[in-house]
Amino acid sequence: MGRAISNKNVADAKFDIAPFDGPFRAAFGRPELKGSWLIYGASGSGKTTFALQLAKYLTRFVDKVAFDSLEQGLSGSLQKAWNLVGMEEVGTKAILLHKEGIEELRARLSRRKSPDVIFIDSVICLIGMRMSDYLKLMNDFPSKLFIFLAHEDDRGKPSPALAEKIRKLSDIKMHVEGYKVFTTTRYEDREKGEGVEDFVIWEKGAAEYNAEF
Questions:
Q1: Closest CA to 94 of 103, 102, 86, 105
Q2: Which H or E element spans position 185?
Q3: pLDDT per residue as tens, the chain (213 positions)
Q4: What is the dihedral of CA 147, 131, 114, 145, to 10 degrees?
Q5: Residue 126 to residue 130: CA distance in whole angstroms
Q6: CA dist., res. 118 & res. 176, Å (int)
Q7: In this structure, what DSSP letter does residue 4 have?
């Protein structure tokens, strides 16, 4: 049976909120860094560059961020994006995992001083993973933040089906299109202007994309 929480305890509860600022605060609000978020979009839309920008930014608030590149691993294209965002500036606070599967990742996260935030690129490479496995991952590591990357289908929905299910349960959903991120966040505060703006990944690319439509 689940634990019942009193009205007073709900009202008085305190949470560890990341003090995002600037464009990140305007787009995402001030979030808790736990649970799951989802980034999705078409190939060539800027997903990887944005994910690495976000990974670098999150090192301000946690001890270590890991980027698990299941699709590319350590490759020339990923190295180019890694260098483009200036990831070397954060030193050992960011690490790249080369095609590390979920079981290997679970073992890593069970160790002391394991990463606080884990990017998983991408859901399509999680062969055999079911919704029950996702829920177990969340329940076993409740203090971690998992940020999943996914492709989108012809209807603009996250793909594969597991990614759409993850989207529904994620606190922040990020749809990337034309070098812009369109967010839906549970940390929105319209009065303070938090979580209400689109995030621009690359100004020139976004302008050129918009000019085409």
A1: 86
A2: strand 180-185
A3: 677 999 999 888 888 899 999 999 999 999 999 999 999 999 999 999 999 999 999 999 999 999 999 999 999 999 999 999 999 999 999 999 999 999 999 999 999 999 999 999 999 999 999 999 999 999 999 999 999 999 999 999 999 999 999 999 999 999 999 999 999 999 999 999 999 999 999 999 999 988 876
A4: 30
A5: 9
A6: 19
A7: P
